[in-house]
Amino acid sequence: MIVWLNGTHGAGKTTTGPLVRQLLPDSRVFDAEKVGETLMDITPGLPWTGNFQHWPPWRPLVVETARRVLDYTGGTLVMPMTVLVEEYWREISTGLAQHAIPVRHFVLHADRDTLRGRIEGDTDMGPSTFRLAYLEPYAEAARTWLHREAEVVDTTHLTPAQAAQRIAESVRS
Fold it and tell me: Following DSSP, what letter does each residue of 53-115 receive, concatenated?
């Protein structure tokens, strides 16, 4: 099984993912961003798109990597990864379904002011115009498709541990 933690930057995916893993037996965290980083390391570089998710190889490589890891280890993969383009989510979720891999899709949500404050106050990564630029695309995805496709966990007033507990309880039920 895959527990996909979606949502925009600042929602808590990276922090919550390992906490969910601790609560779900036989689980591992797989950050699909590493697939994008591998593609970014190709030299000479792939045509610039502004985001590795726009590269057509990224999505099937995420599916194939997740499938191969699950074939090897079994259990559950916890995948903290923002996907805001509906077509890309369909490609990934359809690819996983073709391999009979069940997906529990969660969106970690927080209000815009909370997200902005978390991004601007991030002491690890520092303030990021890249991350701030995704606030509006997230809001649009949430309005048009994303919140209908997932279980929404509002992290505005939750600690990451509380969010992880809610997700783990939902997965176990």
Answer: GGSTTHHHHHHHHHHHHHHHH-SEEEEE-----HHHHHHHHHHHHHTT--EEEEEEE--HHHH
